[in-house]
Protein backbone atom coordinates (compact mmCIF):
# COMPACT_ATOMS: atom_id res chain seq x y z
CA UNK A 1 0.00 0.00 0.00
CA UNK A 2 1.32 3.43 -0.84
CA UNK A 3 1.17 5.92 2.01
CA UNK A 4 -1.84 8.21 1.97
CA UNK A 5 -1.32 11.92 1.53
CA UNK A 6 -2.60 14.29 4.19
CA UNK A 7 -5.39 15.28 1.80
CA UNK A 8 -6.42 11.66 1.18
CA UNK A 9 -6.44 10.91 4.88
CA UNK A 10 -8.43 14.07 5.63
CA UNK A 11 -10.96 13.25 2.90
CA UNK A 12 -11.34 9.68 4.20
CA UNK A 13 -12.10 10.91 7.72
CA UNK A 14 -14.63 13.46 6.46
CA UNK A 15 -16.31 10.93 4.20
CA UNK A 16 -16.74 8.57 7.14
CA UNK A 17 -18.59 11.08 9.30
CA UNK A 18 -22.32 10.93 9.90
CA UNK A 19 -24.86 12.67 12.11
CA UNK A 20 -24.28 10.10 14.89
CA UNK A 21 -20.86 11.71 15.43
CA UNK A 22 -22.51 14.94 16.62
CA UNK A 23 -22.62 15.16 20.40
CA UNK A 24 -25.38 17.00 22.24
CA UNK A 25 -22.89 19.76 23.09
CA UNK A 26 -21.85 20.16 19.45
CA UNK A 27 -25.49 20.28 18.34
CA UNK A 28 -26.36 22.97 20.90
CA UNK A 29 -23.29 25.08 20.06
CA UNK A 30 -23.96 24.68 16.34
CA UNK A 31 -27.54 25.87 16.74
CA UNK A 32 -26.35 28.91 18.67
CA UNK A 33 -23.71 29.69 16.02
CA UNK A 34 -26.28 29.29 13.23
CA UNK A 35 -28.81 31.54 14.96
CA UNK A 36 -26.13 34.17 15.57
CA UNK A 37 -24.96 33.99 11.95
CA UNK A 38 -28.50 34.28 10.58
CA UNK A 39 -29.14 37.31 12.80
CA UNK A 40 -25.95 39.06 11.72
CA UNK A 41 -26.66 38.10 8.10
CA UNK A 42 -30.18 39.51 8.17
CA UNK A 43 -28.85 42.75 9.63
CA UNK A 44 -26.15 42.78 6.95
CA UNK A 45 -28.69 42.61 4.12
CA UNK A 46 -29.31 46.32 4.69
CA UNK A 47 -25.68 47.32 4.01
CA UNK A 48 -24.54 49.06 0.85
CA UNK A 49 -22.01 46.37 -0.02
CA UNK A 50 -24.67 43.67 0.23
CA UNK A 51 -26.97 45.65 -2.07
CA UNK A 52 -24.14 45.99 -4.60
CA UNK A 53 -23.28 42.28 -4.73
CA UNK A 54 -26.97 41.38 -4.88
CA UNK A 55 -27.49 43.71 -7.85
CA UNK A 56 -24.38 42.36 -9.58
CA UNK A 57 -25.47 38.76 -9.01
CA UNK A 58 -28.89 39.31 -10.64
CA UNK A 59 -27.27 38.77 -14.06
CA UNK A 60 -26.87 35.07 -13.28
CA UNK A 61 -29.66 32.59 -13.69
CA UNK A 62 -30.09 28.88 -13.22
CA UNK A 63 -32.73 26.19 -12.97
CA UNK A 64 -31.61 25.77 -9.37
CA UNK A 65 -32.14 28.64 -6.99
CA UNK A 66 -31.63 29.55 -3.36
CA UNK A 67 -32.95 32.34 -1.17
CA UNK A 68 -31.28 35.65 -0.55
CA UNK A 69 -31.81 36.18 3.17
CA UNK A 70 -34.35 38.85 4.01
CA UNK A 71 -35.76 38.88 0.46
CA UNK A 72 -38.36 36.18 -0.08
CA UNK A 73 -38.92 37.22 -3.70
CA UNK A 74 -35.22 37.23 -4.65
CA UNK A 75 -33.53 33.94 -5.51
CA UNK A 76 -30.20 33.19 -7.18
CA UNK A 77 -28.23 30.11 -8.22
CA UNK A 78 -26.76 28.48 -5.08
CA UNK A 79 -23.22 29.75 -5.72
CA UNK A 80 -24.37 33.37 -5.94
CA UNK A 81 -26.91 33.08 -3.12
CA UNK A 82 -24.12 31.79 -0.88
CA UNK A 83 -21.91 34.67 -2.02
CA UNK A 84 -24.52 37.37 -1.37
CA UNK A 85 -25.55 35.88 1.99
CA UNK A 86 -21.89 35.48 2.99
CA UNK A 87 -21.23 39.14 2.15
CA UNK A 88 -24.26 40.08 4.26
CA UNK A 89 -22.85 38.18 7.24
CA UNK A 90 -19.35 39.62 6.89
CA UNK A 91 -20.48 43.16 6.12
CA UNK A 92 -21.37 43.78 9.75
CA UNK A 93 -18.19 42.06 11.03
CA UNK A 94 -20.03 40.84 14.13
CA UNK A 95 -19.96 37.19 13.09
CA UNK A 96 -18.12 34.62 15.17
CA UNK A 97 -14.35 34.31 15.16
CA UNK A 98 -11.92 31.52 15.74
CA UNK A 99 -8.18 31.02 16.04
CA UNK A 100 -6.35 31.05 13.73
CA UNK A 101 -8.13 34.24 12.71
CA UNK A 102 -11.21 33.46 10.66
CA UNK A 103 -14.96 33.97 10.69
CA UNK A 104 -16.05 30.35 10.22
CA UNK A 105 -19.84 30.51 10.21
CA UNK A 106 -20.08 33.38 7.74
CA UNK A 107 -18.25 31.37 5.13
CA UNK A 108 -19.81 27.98 5.82
CA UNK A 109 -23.48 28.57 6.70
CA UNK A 110 -24.48 30.50 3.55
CA UNK A 111 -22.99 27.74 1.39
CA UNK A 112 -24.65 24.92 3.36
CA UNK A 113 -28.06 26.61 3.31
CA UNK A 114 -27.85 27.57 -0.38
CA UNK A 115 -26.94 24.01 -1.35
CA UNK A 116 -29.63 22.49 0.85
CA UNK A 117 -32.27 24.72 -0.75
CA UNK A 118 -31.18 23.64 -4.22
CA UNK A 119 -32.09 19.99 -3.62
CA UNK A 120 -35.44 18.86 -5.01
CA UNK A 121 -38.29 18.69 -2.50
CA UNK A 122 -38.15 14.88 -2.48
CA UNK A 123 -34.46 14.90 -1.52
CA UNK A 124 -34.38 17.57 1.18
CA UNK A 125 -31.56 17.23 3.70
CA UNK A 126 -32.52 16.28 7.28
CA UNK A 127 -31.65 18.84 9.95
CA UNK A 128 -28.96 16.72 11.58
CA UNK A 129 -27.24 16.24 8.22
CA UNK A 130 -27.30 20.00 7.74
CA UNK A 131 -25.69 20.41 11.18
CA UNK A 132 -23.10 17.80 10.22
CA UNK A 133 -22.28 19.63 6.98
CA UNK A 134 -21.99 22.90 8.92
CA UNK A 135 -19.59 21.35 11.42
CA UNK A 136 -17.52 19.59 8.76
CA UNK A 137 -17.20 22.90 6.89
CA UNK A 138 -16.00 24.69 9.99
CA UNK A 139 -13.60 21.87 10.86
CA UNK A 140 -12.13 21.80 7.36
CA UNK A 141 -11.72 25.57 7.37
CA UNK A 142 -10.04 25.52 10.76
CA UNK A 143 -7.66 22.71 9.87
CA UNK A 144 -6.69 24.29 6.57
CA UNK A 145 -5.92 27.53 8.38
CA UNK A 146 -4.04 25.62 11.07
CA UNK A 147 -1.84 24.06 8.38
CA UNK A 148 -1.12 27.47 6.86
CA UNK A 149 2.07 29.26 7.86
CA UNK A 150 0.47 32.55 6.82
CA UNK A 151 -2.58 32.10 9.06
CA UNK A 152 -0.53 31.08 12.07
CA UNK A 153 0.90 34.58 12.49
CA UNK A 154 -2.22 36.66 11.79
CA UNK A 155 -2.85 37.74 15.43
CA UNK A 156 0.77 38.91 15.79
CA UNK A 157 0.69 40.84 12.52
CA UNK A 158 -2.36 42.91 13.47
TrEMBL record:
InterPro entries: MmgE/PrpD_sf (IPR036148), MmgE/PrpD_sf_1 (IPR042183), MmgE_PrpD (IPR005656), MmgE_PrpD_N (IPR045336)
All residue ranges annotated as the MmgE/PrpD N-terminal domain in the record: 8-151
Any one annotated GO CC term: mitochondrion
GO molecular function terms noted in the UniProt entry: aconitate decarboxylase activity
SUPFAM superfamilies: 2-methylcitrate dehydratase PrpD
GO biological process entries: defense response
Superkingdom assignment: Eukaryota
Pfam families: MmgE_PrpD_N
Signal sequence, start to end: none
Coiled-coil annotated residue ranges, if any: none
Family of the protein in this entry: Belongs to the PrpD family.
Protein name: IRG1 decarboxylase
Organism of this sequence: Cisticola juncidis
